[in-house]
Inverse folding.
């Protein structure tokens, strides 16, 4: 068996095309979509990602302001800027880029982002509304998992899905999104006893734990669908997933690549969320 590659390039392209068309319509009607990315780090990989978002936004016809507060910014300064952007009617989407300076916590600062502008679903209020079934943006990476599964017609109703990882960025929200699609969901984490015994029973495995190569062939049931959310930096400057692709590809039925899987869809969804936020603002 050789797993089908679930590339993120095709679903990302479809999302970008739809987003660009909607952005053009909004701009013509007097509401040009605008995204603000708040940065308080000197981390080069973070800077590369922010530049990537800005380039993608430009191609989609979305204005993108990079608000660089410097790596020594205080939590108070970051919160003040987020509050100001939340009150700015010209800004429709806000992202607080990580990592953050020492003493600044994402969970605390993200609460300063108005939930209707929280396009990456980072604020506790957004996650709470998501769980409660109320309108809110899901974290883009978690939603990207679902977008890939949908694009390739992966049936979820009645299937057993195992999520490895319990972060509020991916693990918990993707578990709720899978539940909403009638999957039976198990969430595993660092304290799970005999992880392979659990994951090998799953029809769908979502690996989002941040440990390169953790999921190997013995963790996967033959024919299972495996979504690799991991983006672990390698010594040569590349990226490695949470899945050992070489071994898992010989056992799984389908597998997302790293890079080129969840990542492109995540960026596309951040921009789509910004356009959706602008559309809602235009009718308020």
């Amino acid at each position: 068996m050789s797993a089908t590659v679930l590339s993120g390039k095709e679903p990302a392209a479809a999302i970008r095309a739809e987003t660009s068309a909607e952005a053009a319509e909004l701009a013509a009607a007097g509401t040009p979509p605008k995204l603000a990315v708040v940065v308080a780090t000197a981390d080069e990989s973070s800077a590369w990602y922010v530049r990537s978002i800005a380039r993608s936004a430009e191609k989609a016809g979305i204005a993108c302001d990079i608000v660089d507060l410097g790596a020594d910014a205080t939590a108070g300064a970051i919160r003040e800027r987020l509050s100001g952007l939340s009150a700015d009617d010209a800004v429709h989407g806000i992202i607080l880029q990580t990592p953050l300076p020492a003493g600044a916590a994402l969970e605390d600062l993200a609460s300063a982002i108005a939930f209707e502008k929280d396009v990456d679903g980072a604020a506790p209020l957004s996650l709470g509304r998501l769980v409660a079934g109320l309108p809110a943006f899901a974290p883009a990476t978690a939603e990207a998992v679902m977008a890939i599964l949908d694009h390739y017609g992966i049936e979820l109703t009645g299937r057993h899905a195992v999520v490895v990882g319990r972060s509020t960025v991916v693990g918990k929200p993707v578990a709720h999104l899978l539940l909403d699609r009638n999957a039976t969901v198990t969430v595993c984490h660092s304290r799970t006893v005999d992880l392979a015994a659990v994951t090998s029973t799953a029809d769908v495995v979502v690996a989002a734990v941040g440990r390169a190569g953790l999921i190997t062939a013995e963790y996967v049931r033959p024919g299972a669908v495996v979504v690799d959310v991991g983006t672990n930096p390698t010594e040569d400057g590349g990226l490695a997933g949470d899945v050992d692709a070489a071994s898992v590809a010989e056992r799984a039925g389908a597998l997302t690549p790293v890079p080129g899987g969840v990542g492109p869809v995540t960026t596309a969804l951040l921009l789509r969320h910004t356009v959706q936020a602008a559309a809602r603002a235009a009718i308020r």
About this structure: The radius of gyration is 19 Å. The CA atoms of residues 115 and 146 lie 21 Å apart. The first strand starts at residue 4 and ends at 5. The mean pLDDT is 96.
